[in-house]
Amino acid sequence: MKNEENIGSSTYNITKLNETNYRSWSQQLRWILDERDLWELVNGEEVRPTVSTTQPQQPGQSSAAVATADIDKLNAWTKKAKKARSIIGSSITASVMTYIEGIDNPVDMWTTLAEIYNPKTQTTLLQTVREFMTVKMEDGDMEKHLQRVKRLKRQVEEQGEKVSDTVYNGILLNSVPEDYNIAVNILESQDRLTPEMIINRLMEASRKHGGEEVSGNGKTKTAMLTNSGQSKGKKSSSSSSPSTKVVVCGHCKQKGHKDTKCWIKHPELHPKKSGSTEKKDEQHFVMSAHVKKTEKAAGEKQSKSDPSKWYIDSAASEHFSPYKHLFESYQELSNPHEITTAEGNTVKGIGKGSITIQAMAGSDIISLTFKDVTYAPDMDANLLSTTTLYDLGFEVSSKPGLGVRILKDDILIADTVREGKLFRLKTVQHQAQSATTTVGESMAVWHRRLAHLGEQNIVKLTRMAEGIQLSKDSILGICGSCQKGKQTRKPSHEPSSRSTERGDLIHCDLCGPITPTTLGGNNYVISFTDDATRMSTIAPLKGKSSAEILRAFKHYRTFLKTQHGIRIKRLRTDGGGEFKKHLSEYLKSKGIKHETTAPYSPDQNGIAERLNRTIIERTKAILAETELPKTLWMEIASTVVYLKNRSPTKAL
User: Fold this and answer.
1) C-alpha angle 494/497/502, rounded to 5°?
2) Both 315 and 427 in a single domain?
């Protein structure tokens, strides 16, 4: 049978302390020492016993007996100290052992290591606080980022500086990129915000961001930069070494390189062909193009886009067109160059020339002439290179709500329209055809057009009405405007303090008009409730004028003063105009404080509001059961209040 002290702990295997892992090492070792009842000794709470040399305090107790008891305690402490020393010494590396050589006391060993690797100085505190206050998300991994922020918070608190939840909340919200602005705005509007709420919401938003990024890969008309020579070479390092972390380019979304080394984003980084510097070896590539298939089944139509459509391609090295009839000037190339497409295929560019189109810029029509357009007959669409536009001094602006626009010196040159995952120029020819042709557009576009209609209802509407077509695989995702517009104020659950003295606070509210008119000609009822006892009184009113309300209040005040000797100190009502004028002047003259609730905040006068609901609900129930004339509602309401005053209530 195993010794009880070795059960569980004997199998622990933690990483030894080195120059970089003190925090995790100290936490794990503390748990092990605590399990073995050694932590109090190591942290100095359990001090080393001393052998008493004084006379015994109790009669009949010998000095030898006292000394023997002290020696037993000392031996037990020494045995535990040896165990603690062995655990600490066996869990550190040889390089760290240098700092505690010659130290036998485990308390001194632990203190020495803490002073070296976790010093509590003013300089360390300021450095830690500065890093904590300015932390930013860097690698796109939200979980790692939040762990880093939490670790920095613990380091600050270990230095003796208390971090409040409000400061922690602000740092968490300020540390994420602008992509999370919607989630940050929603969190900032919360009344009772906790760090746990922020962490959970940011993790949820991160998962949604990640899902959108994954779902966007592999869709139609996307491509990567390759060349014919590379495809025949060796496999990439990612495929030959599965254990290596896969690097994904933030620009072209392809694996194997970072955006700083992306040939598409930085064409100048593409290696030149060895042994030649002729222009024919210059690399030409496109992202948003498919190559026409040369073998077609009998009777199959050649798949080709509309010649009037020009698609914006952020990775095209130049402008391309497969339509020779569009060229106003044209010259054959003596040495046709190769163009590498998304699928890794290679097509030929056999000529160059200029093409003029008519584009829409707002309500204006602008004539645009594209020079040095490459004629590539095996492509299936016109491509407009944003790189070429940039080199010519044009700006391609992409903003939510405005789409992609082309500007020159802040002047709009051309608008675009979205077609699936791509944007194309808004041309005059296509604008004229749009009256008879409906192009499928994204779910987000129809969502805004239909006043933020829900996704399922938009799908239903495509089957119920003509002219509404959705692009393939289009989903709505998260609409930030909907989240902002559908926010509601949280109900108030603040516990209210109840008065202890009768008459200290009276809750008052008016209910009506109520139909039918009672036998006494009344359509309204006013209620008064004492906050201390919750005793209620109601009175019928013919109207809601300030004069009638004042008369009812005078009767109620006189009744309390005469029958119970109670003086009213405060009256709480809503901000209705019927409680102003006569009643306000009367209350001032009698020294009674008039409390009014904030606009649109009925919860501040909740006692009176709840009483009105209780009276109406019970009155309706009695009328439904007894089938009495509805004109007796006032008499029944008075009965309800009478019985309510004599019934139990959880408010007391």
Assistant:
1) 145
2) yes
Q: Note the pLDDT of residue 304.
A: 65
In a domain, 603, yes or no: yes
242 has pLDDT over 50: no
Model confidence band, residue 470 (pLDDT cutoffs 50, 70, 90): confident
- Tell me, letter by letter, the H, E, C secondary structure of 264-304: CCCHHHCCCCCCCCCHHHCCEECCCCCECCCCCCCCCCCCC
Q: How confident is the model at residue 54 (pLDDT cuts 50, 70, 90)?
A: low
Mean local confidence (pLDDT), 165-182: 86
Mean pLDDT of the chain: 76
Cβ-contact 33, 9 below 8 angstroms? no
What's the predicted TM-score (pTM) here? 0.31
pLDDT at 230: 38
Q: What percent of the chain has pLDDT over 90?
A: 1
Which of residues 458, 476, 494 is at a domain's end?
476
- Per this entry, what is the length of the chain? 652
Where do we find the tokens 């008016």?
510
- Give Cα 577 distance to the centre of its chain: 43
Torsion of CA 446, 450, 456, 462, to 10 degrees: -70
pLDDT in tens, 491-517: 666 666 777 888 888 898 888 888 888
**What is the predicted pLDDT for the residue at 496?**
66
Whether 343 has a pLDDT exceeding 80, the answer reads no
Give me 385's structure tokens: 């290179």
Residue 258 CB-density burial (10 A; 0-12 exposed, 13-18 middle, 19+ buried): exposed
Same domain, 415 and 448: no
Q: Is residue 652 part of a domain?
A: no
Q: Specify whether 359 is located in the same domain as 286.
A: yes
**Residues 597, 531 share a domain:** yes
Residue at token pair 């003063």: 561
Could you give the residue ranges of the DSSP H alpha helices within 408-507?
428-433, 443-449, 455-464, 480-485
Q: Give residue 25's domain range.
A: 4-117
Whether residue 465 is found in the same domain as residue 604: no
CB-based contact 41:111 (threshold 8 Å): no
Higher pLDDT, 31 or 10: 31
According to DSSP H, which parts of 91-223 are helical? Answer: 94-97, 106-117, 122-133, 142-158, 165-174, 181-188, 195-216
Domain boundary among 62, 97, 117: 117
Number of domains in the chain: 5
Same domain flag for 349 and 422: yes
What is the CB neighbour count within 10 angstroms for residue 407? 14
Tell whether 511 and 597 lie within a shared domain.
yes
Q: Is 251 left (phi over 0), alpha (psi -120 to 50) or beta?
A: alpha
Q: What single-letter DSSP state applies at residue 351?
A: E
Residue 134, both tokens: 């300015």
Least Cα distance to 321 among 383, 371, 372, 369 occurs for 383
Of 568, 594, 575, the C-alpha closest to 583 is 594
The one-letter amino acid code at 508 reads: C
> E strands, 388-545, where?
395-399, 403-408, 411-419, 422-425, 506-511, 524-530, 536-541
Q: Domain of 554: which CATH number?
A: 3.30.420.10
The answer to whether residue 634 scores a pLDDT higher than 70 is yes
